[in-house]
Design a protein that fits this description.
Elements lengths: L2 H60 L3 H11 L3 E13 L8 H8 L12 E10 L12 E10 L2 E11 L18 H5 L3 H12 L5
Antiparallel strand pairs: 1-2, 2-3, 3-4
């Protein structure tokens, strides 16, 4: 074999050996870089997914009317809506209104005090429902159960329930129940006389 051929073969072997050495050192580094890129892609995918879900959730909430929000709340309590009676009352709550018997009875069965909603617009929606606790107290042949839901800024703040006579088509007077069918005593843990004294001291004398 000629010297030039031997030299050529030697050069090729050197190049191959050098390439193998370089690859041996580079492979772990390349693997690490690839792993980092994969992690970044996964993280980016998760972040984009969360943003997309948040956008969908916001659009879903924005697309609901106050009446739908109220209906969802009632159904979330396990009651079946029979009739949507729609908006029945809209007003801006004022301090003086809390001296009126109607509003006194209404707020007597709320878990929250009215103070936070003075000056706010309250919209009330009414529904006829079944599978409600009051079904056990009032014969369904004679009464429907009426439920009202109060909304402020597209959020449920409370409501009330009561029997509605099928004969006279009127909600019975003489006191309110909470949305869940609870009484003043159940919620406030005091009797009517004690609560009335507390209410008059805080909000003024009762006027009918």
């Amino acid at each position: 074999m000629r010297i030039s051929e031997k030299s050529k073969i030697g050069n090729q072997m050197t190049e191959r050996f050098g390439s193998m050495v370089v690859m041996t050192f580079l492979t772990p580094a390349l693997d690490e870089i690839g792993l980092k890129l994969m992690k970044r892609r996964i993280l980016l995918f998760l972040l984009l997914s969360l943003v997309l879900l948040a956008m969908i959730g916001c659009r879903s909430l924005e697309g609901k009317t106050d009446e739908q929000i109220a209906a969802d709340y009632i159904q979330g309590l396990g009651y079946t809506i029979v009739v949507h009676e729609g908006e029945v009352l809209k007003y801006t709550l004022e301090q003086t209104m809390l001296e009126n018997l109607y509003y006194m009875q209404l707020w007597a069965v709320q878990k929250k005090e009215p103070d936070a909603y003075i000056g706010k617009e309250i919209v009330t929606y009414r529904f006829i429902v079944k599978d409600h606790p009051l079904d056990q107290l009032y014969p369904p042949d004679d009464y429907d159960i009426s439920v009202t839901v109060m909304i402020v800024d597209s959020k449920v703040i409370g409501g009330a329930s009561g029997p509605k006579s099928k004969i006279k088509n009127l909600v019975m007077a003489g006191g309110e129940y909470s949305i869940e069918g609870k009484t003043l005593g159940d919620i406030k843990e005091m009797d009517y006389t004690q609560w009335l004294d507390y209410w008059q001291k805080k909000y003024g004398k009762r006027t009918e």
